[in-house]
Amino acid sequence: MSESGLPQGWEVRHSNSKNLPYYFNTVERVSRWEPPQGTDTEKLKKYMAVHHSGSQGPNTARPEGKIRAAHLLVKHRDSRRPASWREAQITRTKEEAMAIIQAHEQKIRTGSTTLGELAMSESDCSSARKRGDLGYFGKGDMQQEFEEAAFGLQPGQMSSVVETASGLHLIERLE
């Protein structure tokens, strides 16, 4: 096992088209967005925080009709895809996920950390590498519950917990 926590033959590479890291098996020559089976998720979390947590710079022009938001996602076993860069298979219950995200919300609201800082190590979305930043999106681009919450925020505001088929989110409107 390497310092990244990935099994033998796997490495982290960077997608130029999505500007995100992914996992590549150098023997089988296959790639995937989620960590492979047998990954040491604690080692991977630390490795990714050090090597793949750069934030994207601010864009100068906001596209018409679009907003920019960041989020922190906590998945559970009933999520649409119960896997992430942090865990190859997510087994926590929805109730356990709710307790986790509510604890994250408390830390953010009390000022002990920011959503972006926490997202880098705790979000189950691959946007964690960009401090949860999802970039610009318009109406119809995201799941309805997520979109309604994000468009209902003013820049700098954070939502309460939002539930979608993907899991539980905290959303911060950036622009």
Summarize, please.
The protein has four helices and seven strands. With 175 residues, the chain is α+β, with helices and mostly antiparallel strands. The strands form two sheets. The chain has a four-stranded antiparallel β-sheet with strand order 5-4-7-6, with helices on both faces. Strands 1-2-3 form a three-stranded antiparallel β-sheet, with no helix packed on it.
Q: Please give the alpha-carbon distance between the first and last residues.
A: 41 Å
- The secondary structure category is alpha+beta
DSSP helical segment count: 4
The biggest beta sheet, please? 4 strands, antiparallel
Strand content: 15-25%
Shape: globular
**Sheet with the most strands: spatial strand order:** 5-4-7-6
Low-confidence stretches: 55-60
Characterize the structure shown.
The protein is built from 4 helices and 7 strands; from the N terminus they run βββαβααβαββ. The protein is an alpha+beta fold and 175 residues long. The strands form 2 sheets. A 4-stranded antiparallel sheet has the order 5-4-7-6, with helices on both faces. It is globular.
Helix and strand topology:
Blueprint: E1 10-15, E2 20-25, E3 30-32, H1 41-51, E4 67-74, H2 94-109, H3 115-122, E5 133-137, H4 144-151, E6 162-164, E7 167-173
Antiparallel strand pairs: 1-2, 2-3, 4-5, 4-7, 6-7
Describe the structure using short key phrases:
alpha+beta, 175 residues, 4 helices, 25% helix
